[in-house]
UniProtKB/TrEMBL annotation:
Residues 28-370 form the Protein kinase domain. One of its GO terms (molecular function) is protein serine/threonine kinase activity. ATP binds at residue 59. Its EC number is 2.7.11.1. It is an enzyme of class 2 (transferase). Belongs to the protein kinase superfamily. SUPFAM superfamilies: Protein kinase-like (PK-like) (SSF56112). It comes from Zingiber officinale. The lineage of its organism: Eukaryota, Viridiplantae, Streptophyta, Embryophyta, Tracheophyta. This is non-specific serine/threonine protein kinase. The keyword Membrane does not apply. It catalyses: L-seryl-[protein] + ATP = O-phospho-L-seryl-[protein] + ADP + H(+); L-threonyl-[protein] + ATP = O-phospho-L-threonyl-[protein] + ADP + H(+).
């Protein structure tokens, strides 16, 4: 059995604020933690400047529009324990660096650093009341400390730091939960404007040669910024699952491999049918994102995916609901959404990808709906 005490000083500083982190030549003070998931933590940080001038702003490689007026940013810290995890983080950085669009969250800067580890092999008799005698550790000890029982290797090899603009209003998922608790819904025009921005971001990704698919479009990956008297700004984030969209599947082993990958990288309630049960001979393309986009539009309207209702039913199967496009329409809010909006959702949620619209078709249609609702 392993027991580890790792990064004690950094952990204390991160929780209580005041810790500092260097990303390349720029220093940032950790203000507070914003979230966490898996091996990743997101912090609100503020650039530390010595002469009143941001050194980050002087970097020619950084778009000036991404520089914060008050020096605050969101910093994602990823704990990397294996070579596979290291490659995944490098892939996320490579893909994120490809995109430049107002509706896609930009990666401002990044660093991957090796972590020096000091390991003690102890038995339980070496502990006092379950804690290491900290007097044995030098006062100016600056390495990460990992303590474990036996010979199990619990050391970390790398840490990645990714710097982004900060959006403190949270995600579309956060907002949906708040609105559900108050039994509120977005008006139709706001639904359409949020959705239109997501379409713009995906169009940018789908326009590459070859096209890129996001592969995890969902409310939890949409950042929201409120604006007084205007619809909120919506920005698509998290490109850890983004890959070239087009794949030729020509065997059962290839289809199973794709399904396994999708089960790890594509959130189930928003995952396209062809990623649940891929034929042995299939051409996969960027229309997997169109399915997820349709589910997300439904979620903007009603707060959840159109298929999550089966999770609360006896014997319900999320996969079967998705494969058969069993959309459950809840009772309409007051005022109700127009039937044309519901038909728009259903148009994107066609189980056969060959008859699903592409992103250009979607944008033409949503612009017509916006024009109609505004007139």
């Amino acid at each position: 059995m392993g027991c580890s005490f790792s990064g004690l000083n950094a952990l204390y500083d991160a929780v209580n604020g005041g810790g500092e982190v260097w990303i390349n030549d720029n220093r940032f003070r950790i203000l507070r933690q914003l979230g966490e998931g898996g091996f990743a933590f997101v912090f609100l940080v503020k650039e530390v400047v010595a002469d009143g001038n941001s050194s980050l702003a002087k970097k020619k490689s950084i778009n000036p529009s991404h520089i914060s007026d008050d020096g605050t940013y969101a910093m994602k810290k990823v704990i990397i324990q294996t070579e596979e995890q290291l490659e995944l983080v490098k892939q996320e950085i490579r893909v994120s660096s490809l995109f430049s669009h107002p509706s896609l969250l930009p990666l401002i800067d990044h660093a991957i650093i090796p972590v020096k580890v000091l390991t003690f092999d102890l038995d339980r008799s070496s502990l006092t009341n379950g804690f290491v005698d900290m007097w044995t550790i030098p006062e100016n000890f600056s390495y990460e400390l990992v303590v474990h029982f036996g010979t199990q290797d619990g050391s970390r090899k790398h840490e990645a730091y990714l710097l982004f603009p900060v959006h403190l209003d949270g995600t579309l998922l956060d907002l949906a939960k708040i609105m559900q608790s108050k039994k509120e819904t977005f008006p139709t025009i706001t639904v359409l404007h949020i959705f239109r921005q997501l379409c713009d971001g995906l169009k940018h990704m789908h326009s590459f040669d070859p096209p890129y698919a996001h592969n995890d479009v969902k409310p939890g990956n949409v950042l929201i910024t409120h604006r007084k008297g205007q619809p909120p700004i919506a920005i698509l984030m998290d490109f850890g699952s983004a890959r070239p969209a087009r794949k030729e599947i020509r065997s059962r082993s290839e289809s199973l491999q794709l399904q396994e990958w999708a089960s790890e990288h594509c959130s189930a309630p928003f995952r396209a049918p062809e990623l649940w049960d891929c034929p042995s001979h299939a051409n996969i393309d960027e229309r997997t994102d169109i399915w997820s986009l349709g589910c997300t539009l439904y979620a903007i309207m009603y707060g959840t995916s159109p298929f999550e209702h089966v999770l609360g039913e006896s014997g319900g199967s999320l996969q079967l609901a998705v494969m058969n496009a069993q959309i459950k329409w809840p009772s309409e809010p007051n005022p109700p959404y127009p039937e044309s909006l519901r038909q728009f959702v259903a148009w994107m949620l066609q189980p056969q990808p060959a008859v699903r619209p592409n992103i250009e078709d979607i944008i033409i249609h949503v612009d017509k709906l916006i024009s109609k609702d505004s007139s």
